Amino acid sequence: MSQSKKILTIKGLSIAFGGLKAVDDLSFHVNAGEIYGLIGPNGAGKTTAFNCMTQFYKPDAGQVIFNHLQGEDVDLVGKKTHDIIKLGLVRTFQNVELIGDLTLLDNLLIGAHIAYQTGLFANAFKLPKARREEEEMTKKALEILAFLGIETKAYELAAGQPYGVLKKVELGRTLMSNPKLIILDEPAAGLNDTETAELAKLIKEIRETYSCTVLLVEHDMRLVMGICDRICAISFGKKLAEGTPKEIQASKDVQEAYLGKEASSNA
After folding, report:
1. Which pLDDT does position 4 carry in this prediction?
2. How far is 50 from 100, CA to CA, in rounded Å?
3. Could you tell me if residue 147 is inside a domain?
């Protein structure tokens, strides 16, 4: 898989809330096939930047250029969220957004709604084309659950499942829409060390098996440093440094942002 083709390019992204700049002229790019990390201390603007990329927030300035499923570049700014999913960019949330009264399988099938070709009429009357499509999507969802190692829970309700299982289902749901780029918003939040190690392995396997690029917004530095090819560190909405995990760890600006000037000078 090519590492030189840019799949996502952020140019001069900025947004302010009540006069406070949450993201300030932020620029970076993600190459196809990378696992790319966006890190920073609490309040650094990571999730705000993430929400601007996926158009949950409308930035005040800047571009979000995405090389979509048809191989063309498009500026996502101003696009509707569901249109962005159709282009091949999907996201997860910090808090798991599953429906407890549905089975794990049905929660995955929700993630496929954007890919359905048949309309409401065909589905309502269970026309042959709609039935075939439903069978295909169910088969795909079961295959993804098997990939995640939780196929035996397919028909169990989401309510009451261990948190680690729910995280896997949320990841699986993103795969139902045939993504080209997955943005993960703090996927390790709430996981223990064993679950985090399993998550790291799973993210790598998703990249390889589903040919996905991954943009990771995360606090857990062990996870980020262990799986990311390149990392962008930000603080107060501004880019501090960009490079490999080793380069980021060696950056004085990053050390100061995390530890404070005095602590970093003694490190």
Report:
1. 64
2. 26
3. no
